Amino acid sequence: MGLHERRQREKESIRANILDAAFSLAKTEGWASLSIRKIADAIEYSAPVVYDYFENKEAILYEISLNGFHCLHIELLKAQKKHDTPEDQLTAIVDAYWKFAFNNKEYYQLMFGLGMQCSGKGMMKEEFSSFQDMIYDCTYEIIKKKGSNADNACHSSHALFSAVHGLISIMMMRNDDIPSTMNKTTLDETVTAFVKSL
């Protein structure tokens, strides 16, 4: 391995360590307490070294949120591929979205700015709309099968996304006084009612 390749690998390693340290700190202390100084201490480098790789904390958060959207997209695709009908796919996709949110709370909070400023404000995230797109595709196929008005697919799928995201947000921000069973049951009933209404 040449000197250039070795240096490049070292840079990639430090960059990955910065992101890993930031995410680990967020899991233990919360996103609000994250700072460049804490990240630098965690990787045993000085703060200027972190700034060599990322312009500021916001840039680190944006990168982590992109990874979150990528992980979510993979889980949604896995769920979709297990089923053949659009009705079953829709139910599986929503369920996978719910599970991802609560199995990866730190990611979800960062991705959607729950209890904090959303990272990468005004910046397009390639996979940001994958959940909405998949809901739309299923909704469109269900409407087509039923012979209903396909022009309603966009509005209907957006309404379902809003309901799912709203339930998750309420659950995450008020988890001390709202039972999880009520919200998951509400989610399942919402999806069932949604499919019937198309």
UniProtKB/TrEMBL annotation:
Against Gene3D superfamilies, the record matches this protein to: Tetracycline Repressor, domain 2 (1.10.357.10)
Q: Per UniProt, which keywords does this protein have? A: DNA-binding, Transcription, Transcription regulation
What are the HTH tetR-type domain coordinates in residue numbering?
12-72
Q: What is this protein called?
A: TetR/AcrR family transcriptional regulator
Which SUPFAM superfamilies does the record match to this protein?
Homeodomain-like, Tetracyclin repressor-like, C-terminal domain
Q: Which InterPro entries match?
A: Homeodomain-like_sf (IPR009057), HTH-type_Tx_Regulator (IPR050624), HTH_TetR (IPR001647), MT1864/Rv1816-like_C (IPR025996), Tet_transcr_reg_TetR-rel_C_sf (IPR036271)
Looking up PANTHER family in the UniProt record yields: ACREF/ENVCD OPERON REPRESSOR-RELATED (PTHR43479), HTH TETR-TYPE DOMAIN-CONTAINING PROTEIN (PTHR43479:SF20)
Residues the UniProt record assigns to the DNA-binding region sit at: 35-54
Short name of one Pfam family:
TetR_C_33
| Source organism superkingdom | Bacteria
Q: Which PROSITE patterns match?
A: HTH_TETR_2
